[in-house]
Amino acid sequence: MANSAHGDNLQAILNSSSYRPAYQDEDFIGRDDLRPLRMQLELLKPEILFEEAGVKSTIVVFGGSQVVERPEAELRVQEAEEALARNPGDRAALRSVERAKRLLAKSCYYDAAREFSRLVSTTCQVSGKCDYVIVTGGGPGIMEAANRGAHDLGAKSIGLNITLPHEQVPNAYITPGLCMQFQYFALRKFHFLLRAKALVIFPGGFGTMDELFDALTLRQTLRMQEIPIILYGRDYWEHAIHFQFLADEGVIDDGHLELIQFAETPEDAWKIIERFHAPK
User: Fold this and answer.
1) What is the maximal distance between C-alpha atoms in the chain?
2) Both 208 and 269 in a single domain?
């Protein structure tokens, strides 16, 4: 009986989480009071992997996850119209058709993001160099398009994904080994901007605007390196955000408007970046 009791106790010891090495104990590492350690790991892991991959600098492409390429956008319009046909006069169905058509009109931005990424990757990833590597949030829409443009050429690109409550997967065009998943938005934003030589922001929603204003605030307060912040598609952005109003109201300086530039073609965006970083 004694030996049996000892054996049961020993098995309980071996099965206890306290016996697992700390670095293998996910329950322990996931404790609230170990959040600083998890944040440090999210700081270090991308830094080490980028260095090992030879990534020297990046160009960040932001944009909406719902801005998809034309065939998919057309399919969404068709599906919305079919739903409306089944429920004529239904306001929600009518609204879905209107929204799908607006997104179809924005499918040109998917093509532009893809072409911009091709242009940058062709110009900068030569002779084994990893300069101006395209980095996105790793999701669908504009992010997919930018990663896809680099993938078209066999060039490297980065995806910085974020853990969200709903299920998601990174887009299929990111370079394996350069797709990372973050728990903390703050650390993800840090790695977006740390090596950035430019930001190109395509039409998008709350997430895109959050990333835009994060960068603008850091530039406004002189807390990050000088880089061009390029809004792609002036008409969209001037409808979405009334920047001049902010200056007219006195809540930002007139000079802060100069932190923003606009582009209408992939070539325009690239020329802005080239001029900005040209030897003085």
Assistant:
1) 86
2) yes
